[in-house]
């Protein structure tokens, strides 16, 4: 009987090492919640601070602007988006570091490097594509492109971490395509994709892997 | 049934460190020495001697490279290694089920 206990211990060790060495498990649900709240705050700044608009229908609102006003609004929106991105990224690194430290795990491992590589290839491709859209004045496709490329990045990175990341990626992808069909209310899709979905994901992760 | 399964266990994997090395290498294309050491929480000498034993039995291969000026040794599992290790896991599972 003693032998038998030994063997099941072996199996447990094997499974644990396989999992830990092939998946990055220091992602925190708090990152998702933080990113979601940041995105919603950023959207409020865009809507009420920059666009000063009471309608979600961007076309109606844009038609009231002069060319000069419009180009200044565009730059402010881009700055707003970049600030949101930086804060959300910084938050996710901070919460991952914290979780890794609490559970005594290393943050810089072969699998975390692979995770970042797989995350950033679609993200950088998307960023370049968004820059192209911006300069081609295809601004109504920017939010769909953000959501689509972000979704693809998460799907790609999901192989190296919790499977919830993969499903979040799918949801972002679907939200992205939906927003492409409704270009006048992209801010609403931004709120769903980067706000609500992140918060749902964060809550699920936080409760499941606390 | 259980006796038969026990006889299928591979002596080469009896040691905990070797079991750990094989578990890492079966799910990763390659893994470097330092990361292996950190993952398994063992000393340099201990890890090196078990890696050597696995290498001599052609269960893993060693790739020595330079990253900049620093030597970087990484390890990969061989086909034989992967198939023997899978047999070993299967035998372990059969024993537990029995």
Task: Write a structural description.
The complex is a heterodimer of chains A (210) and B (98). Chain A has eight helices and no strands. By secondary structure, chain A is mostly helical. The longest helix of chain A is centred in the middle third of the chain and has 36 residues, at 67-102. Chain B has a single domain (2-97), classed as Arc Repressor Mutant, subunit A, CATH 1.10.10.10. Chain B is 59% helix and 18% strand. Chain B is built from five helices and three strands. In chain B, strand 2 and strand 3 (70-77) form a beta hairpin. Chain B starts with a helix and ends with a helix. The interface between A and B is medium-sized, with 17 and 19 residues.
Distinctive features:
A: mainly alpha, 80% helix, B: alpha+beta, Arc Repressor Mutant, subunit A, three-stranded antiparallel β-sheet, 5 helices
Give a short summary of the structure.
The complex is a heterodimer of chains A (210) and B (98). Chain A is mainly α and 210 residues long. Chain A has helices at residues 2-22, 29-50, 58-62, 67-102, 110-135, 142-157, 163-181, 186-209.
Query: Helix proportion of residues of chain A, in percent?
Result: over 70%
Helix-strand pattern of chain A = HHHHHHHH
Number of helices of chain A: 8
The rounded distance between the terminal residues' Cα atoms of chain B is 7 Å
CATH topology of chain B: Arc Repressor Mutant, subunit A
Distance between the termini of chain A: 34 Å
Report the CATH superfamily of chain B.
Winged helix-like DNA-binding domain superfamily/Winged helix DNA-binding domain
């Amino acid at each position: 009987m003693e032998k038998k206990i030994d063997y099941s211990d072996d199996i447990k060790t094997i499974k644990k090492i396989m999992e830990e060495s092939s998946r990055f498990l220091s992602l925190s649900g708090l990152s998702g919640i933080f990113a979601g709240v940041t995105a919603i705050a950023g959207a409020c700044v865009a809507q009420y601070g920059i666009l000063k608009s009471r309608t979600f229908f961007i076309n109606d609102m844009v038609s009231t602007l002069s060319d000069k006003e419009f180009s200044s609004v565009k730059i402010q929106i881009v700055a707003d988006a970049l600030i949101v991105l930086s804060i959300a990224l910084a938050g996710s690194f901070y919460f991952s570091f914290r979780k890794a430290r609490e559970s005594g795990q290393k943050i810089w491992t072969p699998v975390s490097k692979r995770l970042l590589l797989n995350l950033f290839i679609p993200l950088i491709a998307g960023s370049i594509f968004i820059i192209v859209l911006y300069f081609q004045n295809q601004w109504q496709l920017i939010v769909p492109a953000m959501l689509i490329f972000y979704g693809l990045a998460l799907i790609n990175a999901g192989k190296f971490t919790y499977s919830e990341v993969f499903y979040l990626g799918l949801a972002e992808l679907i939200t992205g395509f939906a927003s492409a069909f409704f270009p006048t209310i992209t801010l609403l899709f931004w709120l769903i994709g980067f706000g609500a979905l992140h918060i749902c994901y964060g809550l699920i992760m936080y409760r499941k892997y606390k | 049934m259980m006796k038969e399964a026990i006889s299928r266990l591979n002596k080469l994997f009896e040691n905990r460190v070797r079991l750990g090395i094989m578990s890492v290498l079966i799910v990763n294309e390659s893994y470097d020495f330092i990361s292996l050491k950190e993952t398994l929480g063992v000393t340099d000498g201990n890890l090196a001697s078990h890696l050597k034993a696995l290498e001599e039995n052609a269960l893993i291969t060693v790739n020595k490279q330079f990253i900049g000026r620093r030597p970087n040794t990484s390890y990969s599992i061989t086909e034989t290694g992967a198939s023997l290790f899978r047999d070993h896991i299967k035998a372990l599972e059969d024993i537990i089920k029995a």
